Amino acid sequence: MRYAKLRLVFIPLFISCGLCVLSCCGYSTRSLMPEYLQKIHVRIFLNRTLKTGLDEVATEAVIEAFRSSSNLRIVDEGSADLVLEGSVAGYSKEPHTYTSDQTILEYRITIKYSARCVDRIRNEVFWEGDVSDWALYSADEEQSIREAAKKAAERLVTGILTSW
To answer: Does the pLDDT of residue 131 top 90, yes or no?
Structure first.
């Protein structure tokens, strides 16, 4: 009899504690951005490296990363709540994997962006910083450049979306 009373007390208590713990956990696909920020303009990135064409690759990668990872609409500069300006601040191509006779099998491509995002509603810098990422290649250097640019763009967008 005594155990039956204890069980009547502890089972609901255990269930209540479990529900409290579960209610604290969650995942949301909503943006962490303030609600008044809904539109962004991405200026053409500058290329501060010696590798030609990185300005276009970077700009396209950043725009695509915003389209796929945020609720922000890409608009012209006059309509934007946020304006992103940036540059390809670094590019490197280094040997990564060798054979036993020191023949290079793979290279590591690293791309670094330096960017600043301005909140045009409040007229202040919303986010500023550098991000970089890399990709390996053995045959198609251009594909690896696009992959590294895409990964760096995703890091950039994540940094902006989670900064505030």
So the answer is: yes
- Residues constituting the chain: 164
Predicted confidence (pLDDT) per residue in 24-51, tens digit: 554 443 456 789 999 999 999 999 999 9
pTM, rounded to two decimals: 0.79
Q: Nearest to residue 72, comparing CAs of 43, 38, 41, 42?
A: 38
Residue 86: count of CB within 10 angstroms of its CB: 25
Dihedral of alpha carbons 6, 11, 16, 18, sign: positive
54-69 and 141-161 helices, crossing angle to 10°: 50
DSSP codes joined into one string, 56-74 = HHHHHHHHHHHHHH-SPEE
φ and ψ at residue 46, rounded to 5 degrees: -85, 150
pLDDT in tens, 47-74: 999 999 999 999 999 999 999 999 999 9
Structural domains in the chain, sorted by start: 33-161 (3.30.160.150)
Q: How far apart are CA 110 and CA 105, in angstroms?
A: 17
> Per DSSP, what are the bridge partners of residue 136?
108
- Please provide residue 145's backbone torsions phi and psi, each rounded to the nearest 5 degrees: -65, -45
- Rounded CA-CA distance 142/72 in Å is 29
